[in-house]
Design a protein that fits this description.
By secondary structure, this protein is mainly α. The relative contact order is 0.15. The chain starts with a helix and ends with a helix.
């Protein structure tokens, strides 16, 4: 555990940055705002949520861009700017006077201003501090989203109920900045002793790896991007439509809320568990096992007895997979493409994530409307995950030989 003794500071800063960044705050707080905002400003729920599609789809541009800028300006500087920009965007949300166009422009600004707080930045620092325990370090960092999912709902609800949605937006944005900025400024540092392939260097070798242009010419980049798109599309689609699917199966809303809480805690377990496993076993095989879990969950959704016990099993299965997906791709990016240009390469792969996450909720809902229920949607999702398993398994061995060739 010598790596953890040396790298605990950057690891802590990365975890806090993840918890207070764009991906976590936006995903796990906005559901509490939809009612108060739409009631006050006279919008519909679909109009409100279309802003998230804008933010997610802009990730197709901002994720690769922030990865490229990291090589030029440094990950610490971009992380700080991302946290400040994220807080500023939340303050701008609170100032809306009822203009839907301004609302959409604000969420477009969020995608740009907060891009430096994406996982691309927080996971990049780990390559210089961890090698044998890289999977565990990524799992801990990504668990920041789980901690945010646990803390944000009561905070958002308290602020909205007692002070209104405008103050709540300001409080969450500024509060996240106040919590994260000092820790990131003090501790989010790259390893000055990171090795360059020399035999006497005790630190990880960060000198080898493909540029993004080189990665784009290989099949593994497109395979990883495809499996990320497929898995996030299915899992985000399931999460966003979970209540409707389970209500259709006959479960009470109170029971569904309890299952969702269990699912949230299971996400943290999934993130930590996958980190431990990929340090010991071939990561694509580990990924395949985790992807089987939502397949089992969807089969239970279709054919299982509509009981609380079945619902808990479904929630745990989906939660474990949700906790594993992005951690797995961050780990595999480093293993297959190397750490030298990690932010740029992962930024390109992360673009697949943003598109899948952005289009999944409306497409799942539209599919249910067209086919009068979620049966066909679940069938198609099962087929997609089977394809994802096949794609994972064709990745092959880690290209360790590239360490010597650069």
């Amino acid at each position: 555990m010598n790596e953890f003794r040396k790298g605990w500071g950057p690891l802590l800063a990365a975890t806090v940055g993840m918890m207070c960044g764009l991906l976590t705050i936006t995903n796990y707080s906005q559901g509490f705002f939809v009612g108060p905002v739409t009631t006050d400003l006279g919008w519909s729920a679909p109009e409100f949520f279309f802003a998230f599609t804008i933010t997610a789809c802009l990730g197709l541009i901002t994720a690769p861009l922030i990865g490229s800028l990291a090589s030029k300006y440094g990950i610490k500087r971009l992380g700080i700017l991302g946290l400040v920009g994220h807080a500023l965007a939340y303050v701008l949300m609170s100032l809306n006077n009822g203009s839907l166009m301004l609302w959409y422009l604000t969420f477009a600004a969020l995608a740009v201003l907060g891009a430096g707080s994406l996982p691309i930045i927080w996971t990049a620092v780990l390559n210089g501090w961890f090698e044998k325990n890289l999977g565990k370090a990524i799992g801990i960092t990504m668990a920041g989203t789980g901690f945010g999912a646990f803390l944000l709902p009561p905070i958002a609800e308290f602020l909205i109920s007692n002070y209104g949605w405008r103050t709540a937006y300001q409080g969450i944005g500024i509060g996240a900045l106040v919590l994260s900025l000092p820790i990131v400024v003090l501790l989010f540092n790259e390893n000055p002793e990171a090795g360059s392939g020399e035999a006497n260097s005790a630190a990880p070798d960060i000198s080898w790896g493909m540029t993004r242009a080189e990665a784009l010419r290989g099949y593994r980049f497109w395979v990883l991007g495809s499996v990320l798109f497929i898995t996030v599309f299915v899992i985000v689609g399931l999460l966003s439509n979970f209540e409707r699917i389970m209500v259709a199966r006959g479960l009470a809303r109170a029971d569904i809320a309890s299952i969702a809480a269990i699912m949230g805690l299971t996400v943290i377990v999934g993130r930590l568990l996958v980190g431990v496993l990929v340090d010991k076993f071939w990561a694509p095989a580990v990924a395949s096992v985790f992807i089987v879990m939502p397949i089992i969950a969807m089969l239970l959704m279709k054919y299982g007895a509509p009981s609380m016990g079945t619902g808990i099993v479904i929630g745990i299965a989906i939660g474990l997979a949700a906790g594993a997906e992005l951690d797995m791709l961050a780990y595999l990016t480093g293993r297959y493409f190397g750490p030298a240009h990690y932010p740029a390469v992962f930024g390109g792969i992360f673009a697949f994530f943003t598109i899948g996450a952005g289009i999944a909720p409306p497409l799942f809902g539209a599919g249910a409307a067209v086919w009068n229920g979620y049966g066909m949607v679940l069938n198609g999702s099962i087929g997609l995950l089977v394809l994802s398993i096949i794609l994972f398994l064709i990745l092959g061995k880690y290209p360790d030989a590239q360490r010597s060739s650069g």
